[in-house]
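Duplicate of #3305? Posting structure anyway:
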């Protein structure tokens, strides 16, 4: 307990990150990459963990503002750009999406076609870079740099020393590129493409930047700090799926099993993971395991995932839908003035107008439950349904389709359906040709059904 005014206690996210960092900081396993000579100069003790939430809040522990070259962590973001340029089918024809189970620099090429296994290994990333639409190499790199910057929410630059160092020693990647061009899977000027790829890998970031980038993927492509839509939501989903299956090279399977998050590592010691709709998280710690993944990074993110219960396969909390009323117009008539005869009819037949009111959000599970409630509430046909969804705050795409289809079926089966909903939601569910009616409020919807019932009697 702290007494008021002395200091504000640290928030639980920062506290968690600090605790993980403190403990894992003692680990001294792993080797700093040295096949790119400039990378060997990294401080093996540098260790930072950063989280960015969907509200754009940052949580930082340790060396989160130390700059390093992004390396392979660039791959998912450039893949996003390629998907945005060409669409998934065209990109898949050039770069497959199967985990290779091999090292990042392996010759993971399809026999016959030379198509690389996935965009997260070097071969696939080199082809991905070549796919970015631009008039020349300089413009292509500028698009890549601008894209990475938009993901990070600030203007990123190139670490020229790292670039020169990789360009001077990058024969393995050049060899891979020539192999692919020989096989026909890489098209264009090999030298230019590989140099662009090296520059892309040399873009300078911090762990704090990487957390924003991961958070942007977790947020459906909208940068939670700047509010900028960097990529469309379907592209973010595709990139995250690729990261889940291929992000950690030959450790990808065990990673998904333990940490359960889409992730991507790089040889400079960066590692990111994204928890959809929750957060982006990044670690910087240069010593690598034999697969080329940051030793402390893998451990830190696995622990963070456990601590904050982020595993993708967790059963999510539902219960966000409450059915607040299931009645009929007999118990809850409208306030519209009626003469004695009409009032008598409504008192007798009011139960032919079912009323279901709900509040909350509608995804698959909630919609399924709501539609079961509707089924139970319905009178025998012909009859009326007032579906009062005014206090439903959000409806997922699939849920809107389920709802729309059911209401259409009811109309075809002899029911008249009156819906109240917030405008955006009504639009989402309502399709041209639908014969159910949207009302501004529950009172009007009930009154309309009553009028229709009485007219039928008339
Ligand atoms: N630029 C590095 C390379 O191509 C990237 C590899 C990595 O980060 N895994 O070798």
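Output from current build:
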């Amino acid at each position: 307990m702290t007494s008021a005014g002395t200091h504000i206690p640290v928030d639980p996210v920062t506290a968690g990150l600090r605790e993980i960092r403190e403990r894992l900081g003692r680990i001294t396993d792993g080797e700093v990459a040295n096949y790119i000579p400039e990378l060997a100069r990294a401080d093996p003790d540098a260790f930072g963990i950063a989280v960015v939430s969907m509200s754009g809040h940052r949580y930082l522990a340790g060396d989160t503002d130390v700059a390093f070259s992004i390396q392979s962590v660039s791959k998912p973001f450039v893949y996003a750009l390629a998907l945005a340029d060409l669409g998934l089918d065209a990109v898949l024809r050039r770069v497959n999406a199967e985990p290779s189970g091999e090292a990042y620099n392996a010759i993971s090429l399809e026999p016959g076609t030379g198509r690389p296994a996935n965009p997260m290994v070097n071969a696939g990333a080199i082809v991905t870079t070549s796919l970015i639409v631009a008039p020349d190499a300089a413009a292509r790199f500028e698009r890549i740099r601008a894209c990475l910057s938009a993901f990070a929410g600030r203007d990123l630059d190139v670490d020229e020393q790292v670039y020169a160092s990789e360009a001077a020693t990058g024969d393995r990647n050049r060899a891979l590129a020539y192999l692919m061009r020989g096989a026909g899977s890489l098209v264009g000027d090999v030298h230019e493409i590989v140099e662009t790829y090296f520059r892309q890998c040399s873009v300078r970031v911090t762990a704090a930047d990487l957390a924003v980038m991961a958070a942007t993927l977790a947020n459906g492509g909208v940068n939670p700090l700047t509010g900028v839509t960097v990529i469309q939501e379907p592209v973010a989903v595709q990139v995250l799926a690729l990261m889940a299956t291929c992000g950690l090279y030959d450790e990808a399977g065990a990673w998904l099993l333990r940490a359960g998050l889409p992730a991507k590592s790089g040889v400079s010691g960066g590692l990111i993971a994204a928890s959809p709709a929750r957060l982006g998280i990044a670690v910087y710690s240069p010593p690598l395991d034999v697969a080329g993944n940051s030793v402390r990074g893998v451990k830190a993110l696995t622990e963070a995932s456990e601590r904050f219960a982020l595993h993708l396969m967790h059963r999510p909390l539902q219960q966000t839908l409450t059915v607040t009323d299931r009645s009929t117009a007999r118990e809850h008539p409208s306030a519209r003035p009626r003469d004695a005869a009409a009032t008598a009819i409504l008192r007798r037949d009011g139960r032919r107008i079912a009323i279901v009111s709900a509040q909350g959000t509608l995804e698959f599970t909630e919609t399924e439950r709501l539609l079961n409630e509707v089924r139970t509430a319905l009178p025998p046909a012909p009859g009326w349904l007032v579906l009062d969804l005014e206090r439903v705050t959000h409806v997922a795409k699939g849920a809107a389709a389920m709802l729309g289809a059911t209401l259409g079926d009811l109309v075809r089966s002899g029911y008249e359906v009156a819906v109240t909903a917030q405008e955006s939601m009504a639009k989402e569910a309502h399709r041209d040709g639908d014969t159910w009616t949207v009302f501004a409020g529950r009172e009007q919807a009930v009154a309309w059904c009553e009028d229709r019932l009485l007219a039928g009697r008339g």
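Confirmed duplicate; merging threads. Residues 71-72, 104-105, 122, 166, 173, 201, 266-267, 292 surround glutamine (CB under 6 Å). The first helix runs from residue 12 to 24.
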